[in-house]
Structures are given as structure tokens and as C-alpha cells.
Amino acid sequence: MIDQINQAFSGMMAYFTNSKLLFALIVGISFTFFFVAAFNIINSIMNPVRRQMRDLSLVGDATSRKRSSDVLDNSVLSLQRFLLPKSEKEIYRTRKRLETAGLRRTSDMLYFYLAKIFLSLVCGIVALVISSRHPDMGALEILFSVCLGFAIGMIIPSYVLDKKIAKRKMKIINGFPDMLDLLVACSEAGLGLNAAIRRVSMEIHLAHPDLAWELKKVNSEMLAGIDRIEALKGLSQRTEIEDISGFVAMLCQSVRFGTGIAETLRIYADEFRDKRMQRAEEAAQKVGTKLLFPLVLCMFPSFFIVAVGPAAVSIIKAFGS
Fold first, then answer.
1. Could you count the other beta carbons within 10 Å of the beta carbon of residue 81?
2. Do 283 and 173 form a contact (C-beta atoms < 8 A)?
3. Per residue in 125-146, pLDDT tens?
4. Helix axes of 287-294 and 262-285: crossing angle, nearest 10 degrees
5. Residue of 54, 179, 191, 215 with fewest CB within 10 Å of its CB?
6. φ and ψ at residue 138, rounded to 5 degrees
7. Count of Cβ atoms closer than 10 Å to residue 121 Cβ
């Protein structure tokens, strides 16, 4: 039996050695390990618990990082009069967009305009180099390509900022039902609105950091002496989300008339949870349509090459002979 096993193993090794199957097997195993390792790395980076543990482990280096960041910010702030536009309306609009995206430092607006200038120069120079390599292009066409490069460089930071705003809004919307559930539990446990908001902001810090920051901001404004209605309206203005505006209006009405908010919050929580489930179902229904393009462009050509290629080669040889 041992001889038979050795003969079978020798035949298998000879088959692998004499064919390309061994190479394909090695490539497949290598890609499998690569994708598994990449998935584990991405999962460790995106995991909120691991992110919080990493932040806690880096507390000791926070002072040195803050010092270097302050030096860089001071260097950028010295260029403030050259970077910022002259219009106060434009400055206010840009600051509001940056705050909606979660960029709240004073230097963030300067970095935004610095990125616009830098990218416009880079895109313009690249367009000039590419267009100068084509001798058939005239001076007017070269000037148009350079202007187009400048325009693209100016648009890229705004596009990235819009995407960041939309991503942050979606994170807040997805975490809003969980926040309402915890707020209902705190209200029914006997906590007041201020204490409930503070407690909820502490509980959802890991899962929904953006929403937790907004709640901490509301609580800080209340502790600073700002009226609760004004603090809640500030939450609506910062997030610019319609659902949160309705929720804030309901809370302001409850605070103004002194009515209980536990039952109203429960109704709102059920409604927002249903909306989140509907958004998830809608995204799941779109998966089939989104998969159509990669299938048609990537997988189907390879499949037809493998399935029809040998027959096509045989047909071409037959007609050629």
C-alpha cells in the first residue's frame, strides 16, 4: 500500500511539474493569502474598538504631535492674508462647509485654499507639459488646456470636501436611531435632557464618534449658559440634516411647553429605525445593477476568451489551411 501511495504521489508531482497547473495553483494561493491579509489589515484599521485602543496607546505622544502640528499651523497662519479670499460671504460659506465636514480648526480653511492653489498650479503645469509635447497644437489650444488644468485643480478640493460632507452626514444619519434608543432609555430612567444627552454622547463615542461630538457640543453649550433651544438649533444648523431638524423642532417644542419627551422619542426612534432599514434594503437592491458593469467589462471577456478562444483558434487554422 505504501508503494502504491508513493507511485500516486510521484505521478501527481510529475503531472504538476509537466503542466502549468502548479504555477496557477501557486498564484491562486498567493492571491488568496494576499486578500486575506489585506482584509485583516483593513478590518483592524476600521474597527472602532481597535481605533480607540490605538488612540489610548498614543496618548503619551500627543504632546509632541500637538507641538509639531502647532508649528505647521502657525506657518500656514502667517500666509492668511495671501490665501483667504477678500469676500466675507465666501469665507463664511467655506467655514460653514468645513464645519459640516468635521473640520473645525482655524487652520483647516487655510489648508483648503492652499490645496486649491497647489493643485491648480500642478494641474496647470501638467497640462502645459502634455500639450507642449504635441507639435500640432496651436498656442490657443495650449492656453485652453492650461486653463482647463487650472480649473480642474480648483475643483478637486471642493469635490473632495463635498464627498466628506456627504459621508459624515450619512454616518450621523445611520447612528441617529441608536442615539434615540439610548436617549429614550435615559429619559425613562429619570434623567433630564442635559444629563441624558451627556450620557448618550459618552455611550456612542466608539460606534458613532461624529454624532457623539455633536451631542457633546450641545451639552457644552448648555453648560456654558446658552439656552437649550438655541443649543439644539445649533445642532440642526451644524449637521444640515432634515431628519435632525425635525427632531430638534420636536425637542424644542417639548422644552417650551414642558411636556414629556419619552413617548415622543420612542415614536421617533421607531420611525428612524424603519428609515435606516429601508435605506439598507434600497442599497441591497442596487447591488445587482452595480455588479452588471464589472461583470460585462471584466469577467465576461475573460470567460469568452477561455471558453470560445480555443474553438476560434481551431476555426481560424481550419480556414487558413
1. 7
2. no
3. 888 888 888 777 777 888 888 8
4. 30
5. 54
6. -85, 180
7. 13
Write the single-letter amino acid at 101: A
Burial class (CB in 10 A: 0-12, 13-18, 19+), 196: buried
Please name the residues in contact with 43: beta carbons below 8 A apart, sequence gap of 6 or more: none
* Burial (Cβ within 10 Å: 0-12, 13-18, ≥19) of residue 78: exposed
Spatial contact of 233 and 248, defined as CB atoms under 8 Å apart: yes
CB 141 within 8 A of CB 131: yes
Q: Mention every residue, 6+ apart, whose C-beta is less than 8 A from residue 178.
A: 204, 207, 208
Q: Which residue has the higher pLDDT, 285 or 80?
A: 285
Cβ distance 203 to 173 under 8 Å?
no
Give the Cα separation of 119 and 126 in Å (integer): 10
Q: For the whole prediction, is pTM greater than 0.85?
A: no
For the chain, the residue count is 321
Kindly report the three-state secondary structure assignment for every residue of 61-129: HHHHHHHHHHHHHHHHHCCHHHHCCCCHHHHHHHHHHHHHCCCCCHHHHHHHHHHHHHHHHHHHHHHHH
Q: How far apart are alpha carbons 134 and 214 in whole angstroms?
A: 53
User: What single-letter amino acid sits at 114?
Assistant: L
pLDDT of residue 247: 81
In 3D space, the residue among 180, 168, 133 whose CA is nearest the CA of residue 239 turns out to be: 168
> Contact at 8 Å (CB) between 244 and 208?
no
Distance CA 275, CA 268 (A): 11
